[in-house]
Amino acid sequence: MFTGIVEELGTVVAIEHGADSARLRVRGPLVTADAVHGASIAVNGVCLTVTDCAGGEFAVDVMAETLHRTDLGALSPGDRVNLERAMSAAGRFGGHIVQGHVDATAVISAREPGERWEIVRCSLPPDLAPYLVPKGSITVDGVSLTVVDVGPQEFSVSLIPTTLELTTLGTKAVGATVNLEVDVLAKYVERLLAARLDSAPRPATKEQTT
After folding, report:
1. pLDDT tens across 148-175, in order?
2. Helix-strand-coil split of the chain, %, nearest 5
3. 159: domain range?
4. Would 2 be classed as within a structural domain?
């Protein structure tokens, strides 16, 4: 589990594409300082398992489902990526509960600079729209952010100077793809309510009462 607080901007060293998978090697001296085989590291919001770690670099395997759901397959050597280690039991929740399970990708549709911050608008896949509310949480490229507003086809977030400086969101241009993960708590609420409604007694019809 993660919290959406990016620890380090890493650099893609290499990516090897297979028929339905890929192997990614990333340089990240901070996140590899205590990494071991089998550790979890989020790369642009995608939870991946470390298969090899040495010299400040780590390797991960990316399966077909992940390549389909995220933008990791489009990465190239030299690209910067957001990195976060899995949260320790004694850690602080600086952001919100993030699983590293990307729901879909979106496209940055607009950037509106402010005095010291920036409003970023992104497209919103229709099936994710019910999970977003103003002042709620969303993960964009692994960054825990607060939703400013939600429309039928897009949403916006506000980026503070630290986010602009220390994550990929500071340099991604209009038209760039980002990974989205909605708040998992909203998914559980929806599932539980659906189950309750399905199991609730149905009111008797006129034919049943006569």
Report:
1. 999 989 999 999 999 999 999 999 999 9
2. 20, 40, 40
3. 104-195
4. no
